Amino acid sequence: MSSYKPQYENLRKKIIDNNNQCKLELDKITDDYIKFCDKMEVAAMDLIQTHITNLEERLDTLKQLSSEYKQNLQTGTAVLVYDSVSEIREMDSDIPPTPDIDMAEFTPGMDRLSHLKQALGNLKLPTDHLQAGLATGGHSDQCPVVRPKQSTGSGQASTGEVWYKLRDRPTVMSQFTYPDTITSICPTSDGRAWLCYYYTHTVKLINNQGRVIQTIQHKRNIWDISLDPNTGRLWFCCWEERSICEVSTSSKPVIRFTTESRPYSLCVTREGRVVVGTQGRQGYKVVMYTVDGRVLHTHIVEGLVRSITQCGVTGNIAVVVDGKRISVYNKTLQPLVHYRGEGIQTWGSVTPVDFGPCTVVYDRKGNIVIADTTRKTIELISGSGKYIKTLHTNKGYQGVVGIQKGDVLWSYLVLDTGKWGFKLLKYYSD
After folding, report:
1. Angle of the 5-75 helix axis to the 78-92 helix axis, nearest 10
2. Integer Cα distance of 186 and 224 in angstroms
3. Is pLDDT at 397 greater than 50 in this prediction?
4. Which of 4, 53, 107, 389 would you label with 268, given CA atoms 20 to 30 Å apart?
5. SS3 string of 251-274?
6. Residue 190 pLDDT > 80, yes or no?
7. Which numeric CATH code is attached to 156-428?
């Protein structure tokens, strides 16, 4: 005991010291950012004030010329009147343009926890008998994988590190009609959502009542969309021109790279990679690119990849293959899990023929939400491919889904009224 206690004291001291150092460096970065903002504000205000001064001087001159013009009209000759008119008109041609001032932009980090852990350092925990003494809330340098155990009727589930409680049935936070057909949805962190339909050239941003806020146009059909988890910017792929595009700050689509095979689906990862489901002469593939189009990893699959999502907990990547199964890969596209509806008991034991996933999305617990068009349900499975619960069964058609920050599930479906629309659902109690 006497030999180990000082080691743990030293361990705690190192963690606290590094934490204090991280705080100082973060304060320094913040201070630098604030100073940049202050300088840019002063420069912008000086530029605008100079423009205002120029306009005021021109206005004074015009007032003086106008007075002289009126006097010449009353008492002057035709030549003086002509000269006055000419002088006033000459001033119109060189009106100083309004200064074009580009606003500075700040994009808050969307994945702060993993970056902060990386900055602080890794705490490597033993994997032997000492783990038995750890509390279930402990954290390690490895992100927890959700492996729920069967629970009581309250819907509570647990893992070695994560506890959560499911609601008996999802709570409908909001629902509204939406007339357009949707094949992909990406909710934003501020409660809106980007929508696209792969037979149109547009992407639309709507609020949580269905009102269109913004429309992005492109020259080709947009087949799938994804939000960069770090910058919040919109990416999309085009089947016909084999392009992967990013929407710039000016809301203008920019082609970042083209693919050898036709892209059908995509997902921008937190590591700054672009994972694309493609179809070409060599068959169907999942390909991981850098943002400038360099191929990093490739995996051949047995069907068209219809949906791609990344886990914010483990970094694993889940895809829908051919509308028949879910495949989970690690960060280098090594296969981990294949799921074909095992464990679902809604119709008895669900066979692969009954299982028809169209969309997969990870929630913040590391669980996978699946929209099943065959049985008109929304299913929840763990990241390791274990069935947890049927979250929702719809009377009409069940379409694509998306996850908003805070695990608010956007579900595109036929409402009880028979009209197309959205339901926003909460299925965790916390």
Report:
1. 170
2. 10
3. yes
4. 389
5. CCEEEEEECCCEEEEEEECCCCEE
6. yes
7. 2.120.10.30
